[in-house]
Amino acid sequence: EFDLVTMKLEEMDFTANVELRPRAGQPGNCYDAESLHDKATPSKSVVCYGLVLWFETGFTSRFCKEMPTTLSTSPYTPKTHWYQTLLTFREPIPMYSEPAYTSSASDIGTDANLAAKIILRISIARAVRHRSIDISVETSAVTVEGRKLRYPAQIFNL
């Protein structure tokens, strides 16, 4: 969380660690790659294609005494002229929607050896170009047993 009134220039660049897991116990929400077109065939796997980023800005009573509000670009709030940012992975990562153990020796995050979670390291820094940012994403797929596959880092300029 940032306070745009008091934050310092060096606080604009930051790194965050994030762990993604599919929602468990959501019947009908997860489908395997073959049944994506046939929504009547639920599966125990789901495919993660990337990340969605958005922001929320509080116009609190400190500055908007008459009508404090929050501007959000979340996909779960009413639409505004602002949009979310989509960062796609180089390749989709198949994951278990319900954790299960595998004995597969195949690559992690493949249809034969689904990931149980995705660990991300996201860094955001001011870009050289005015009013732009650079975002780097380091991605690892992890099995229930803790085996890990690291993907090449990706750089996005916005």
TrEMBL record:
InterPro entries associated with the record: Arg_MeTrfase, PRMT_dom, SAM-dependent_MTases_sf
UniProt domain Protein arginine N-methyltransferase: residue ranges: 1-95
Keyword Transferase among record annotations: yes
UniProt keywords, alphabetically: Methyltransferase, S-adenosyl-L-methionine, Transferase
GO cellular component, one term: nucleus
Keyword Methyltransferase (UniProt): yes
GO molecular function: histone methyltransferase activity; protein-arginine N-methyltransferase activity
Pfam name, any one: PRMT_C
A GO BP annotation: methylation
Protein name: Protein arginine N-methyltransferase domain-containing protein
Organism: Nymphaea colorata
